[in-house]
Amino acid sequence: MIKKIEIAGVKLDNYSVRELLTMIEKTMDSSALKTIEEVTMGMILAAEKDEQYREIIEGLDYSILSEIGILSAIGETSLQRRHEVEESSFFYEFFKRLERNKKSIFIIGETVKKIQEIQEVVKDNFPNIQIVGTKAEEECVGALDAMVNDINVATPDVIFSVMPSPNQENFLRDYKSLINATIWYGVGDEKNFATKKTVWKKIKNAVKFKQFKKTVIDIETQKIHKEEVVR
User: Three-state DSSP class for 139?
Assistant: First the structure.
């Protein structure tokens, strides 16, 4: 299994869940904020078009491929990796460790409603985890300084972001140096934590992957053409 990949000009990690958890646990006591995000097909396409956004994505300490379509596009055939992505294995295994080690989390998102939905998912699956605070973008007036202040007052171990992209990446870029926490874990606002897939969901995913694959092929074709012209 290839540990580092490049797709549509964007460089990402392709570690197994076990490998990621091992690397992260070694840095849990570090004072520097470690950044983890689950990367979607949409984020990859946005990063291909926007150099600043791509730099943020590539600058993450750990990136997690969060959709089967990305694995298919890079020719990753490992059944283990497919299972990990389909079942959101990293999220569940990571939060199990947070709960077991009595680590605290602070949840941020775009709306209060979205945060409440995520809180229910977390509490249902990890009843003993410590949620020390939440903050929604809609609760902040103007800049997001109030969100940073609330985070720092609560001093969580982990900031769990369900803000939509690129909001969460822009927030990370603008405020990373001011945040008092050990780990930033962003999953965006589209992540489906349910493991059961409906027929309609499968159809939507298939269409989404078809569009993604076509775009990636077009990008790679243009890249090859440009290289041939230069020669």
Answer: helix
Give the C-alpha separation, 20 to 62, whole Å.
Answer: 8
Are the C-beta atoms of 73 and 39 separated by less than 8 Å? no
Residue labelled with tokens 């984020």: 43
Q: What share of the chain is helix, strand, coil (3-state, %, to 5)?
A: 55, 15, 30
From first to last of its 231 residues, the chain has per-residue pLDDT tens of 678 889 889 999 999 999 999 999 887 777 789 999 999 999 999 999 999 999 999 999 999 999 988 998 888 888 999 999 989 999 999 999 999 999 999 999 999 999 999 999 999 999 999 999 999 999 998 889 999 999 999 999 999 999 999 999 999 999 999 999 999 999 999 887 754 444 445 545 555 656 676 676 666 666 655 555 555
Instruction: Give the chain's domain count.
Output: 1
Orientation angle between helical segments 79-86 and 89-100, nearest 10 degrees: 70
Give the pTM: 0.85
* Nearest CA-CA partner of 59 in 46, 49, 45, 47: 47
User: Which domain does 167 fall in, by range?
Assistant: 4-230
Cα 225 to the center of its chain, rounded Å: 32
Q: How far is CA 9 from the centre of its chain?
A: 18
